[in-house]
Design brief:
The chain is of the alpha+beta class. Strands 2-3-1-4 form a four-stranded antiparallel β-sheet, covered by helices on one side.
Length: 93
């Protein structure tokens, strides 16, 4: 397997960009507003207009696709860390 050197390897994503983040959790009334609020702590301009919501077939789970305008890999990583650490979040892709 070849190692990737972050110093010499070009980035896979060009920043700034709008990046889709899928967040899944159990269906709860506060899920979407909680996720939006979490993202806004890192990206204050993020709002509900940038969220697509879909319920699972049986309605037990909900997934949000959040299109987030990020300026850097570090900012994107911060959003992922914040989301994955929250107890309402089951998966983040």
């Amino acid at each position: 397997m070849t190692d990737i050197d972050p110093q010499t390897t070009p980035p896979l994503i060009e920043f700034p960009c709008r990046f889709p983040i899928k967040v899944m959790g159990e269906t709860q009334d506060i899920f979407a507003t909680t996720i939006i609020g979490l993202i806004q702590t890192i990206v204050p301009s993020f709002n509900a207009e940038h969220v697509e919501m879909r319920a699972s077939t049986n309605g037990k789970y909900i997934s949000l696709t959040c299109s987030v305008d990020v300026d850097s890999q570090a900012q994107l990583d911060d959003v992922y860390r914040l989301l994955t650490a929250h107890p309402l979040v089951k998966y983040t892709l």
